[in-house]
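Researcher: For the record, we're logging two predictions in this thread. I'll number them. Prediction 1 follows.
Model: Prediction 1, sequence and structure:
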Amino acid sequence: MFDQLADGVYRRRYESLDLNIGVVIGEEGVLIVDTRATHVEADELRADLSTLTEKPVRWVIDTHWHWDHTFGNSRFPGADIWGHHLCRKALVERGDSMKQDAAAWLPDRMREFDEVVITPPTRVFEDAASLDLGGVTVTMSYHGLAHTDADIVVTAGELAFFGDLVEEGAPPVFDDGYPLSWPGTLRRALDVGSITIVPGHGDLFDRGAASTQLEEIEAVAATARRCIDEGLPVEDAARLGPYPEDVMKSALSRAVELHA
């Protein structure tokens, strides 16, 4: 079921990976935010969209390059696919290795991932871009390194789709992230002033919940800085942070690796 968040703006929270998909319906067509994890899931999304509107999907926006958000791109061949230029670069250069990552995450779906046609964004930007859908304007903005090097915020009125800059129901994922930069990036993203935030996964955030997660990520960054500046062992530091030890180890090891 689609949740209507504002006039013409919806999100659908799928059970698979607890992923949120954004939908904005304008006079000129439909825009979707992220396309799910495979062509099979994207086909399900297309069928679900037909219950909401008969208008064609004319725009797709990838919030970042991770496979669970982009591997359905090929199923929207008539749409302009937008993303940060580093999102396109990652999918062009590392699309096949992302298939292997996806299969390692969900090994029972290996054949499905093998069949994915990697489809990078066709329209890219560096700092900001906007789209006039007819009756509604959607903006895209880049604020720096965070969950990946290519996370963007998609804003429609007082709503914003944050992708995996924030995560509800589970700790943020730092594997491809930039733990020392993430707090500043998220702070700048929150300065956009959106009232309702749709995370990449999980339930809706208000600004209070987003601020709480910012404080947690700041604590991760402060702990990572101790590992780098004071030589505090990652194994010991992982017990000090706001998230479970396995998450902290991932974040701290990544920070130390990037600093080396």
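Researcher: Logged. Prediction 2.
Model: Prediction 2, sequence and structure:
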Amino acid sequence: MNSRPRVVLGIAGGSGSGKSWLAREVAAAFPGRAAIVCHDWYYKDNGRLDGEASKKLNFDHPAALETPLMGRHLDLLTAGEAVDAPVYDYATHTRLQETRRVEPTPLLILDGILILHEKPLRARMNLSVFIEVPDDIRLARRVRRDTMERRVDLDETLRLYEEFVRPMHLRYVVPSSHHATWIWSQLDDKRFPELLIRDLKRRLDEKDEAVAA
């Protein structure tokens, strides 16, 4: 069994801000010692809805996610137990039968637009980053991601942005930035990922030394 998490890092920000990129960069700096858990994995299953009903789904509202299940999984990981996290299909709005295995590691990275909005998730973090990126840049990135990775066409991506993404960003995501340990202005500070990784290494080393003592 791997080590129990000693540092839990949350990475938040608007859709298209680069949360997943930063999570992967950080995890890559700690091979075998870091795991990522995404809030997006915990979208509720909506596969039974017809076409018209599915268009009313607001994926950027806190109610769209099964956050209590994520919280239970984080507690298991913190206790040193592996979990089988859900897999969500964005094209069909379905939670698939298959799961993804997540093992406990010294560094646990949480990724999601609403993780700093959710108090139960904040309570499980030691540190957190909120990524600030201009709206037009985030929208362009979302269009590329949705069309290339999630099989969502351009018209649907723009509709979702206008009806749900932008208003929910202003209502929930932006205010949650006040809970972050660091606010990273991504376009202005290119060195932040390097400095974050350096800080995390120091913290993990200190905790390793404390455990060894």
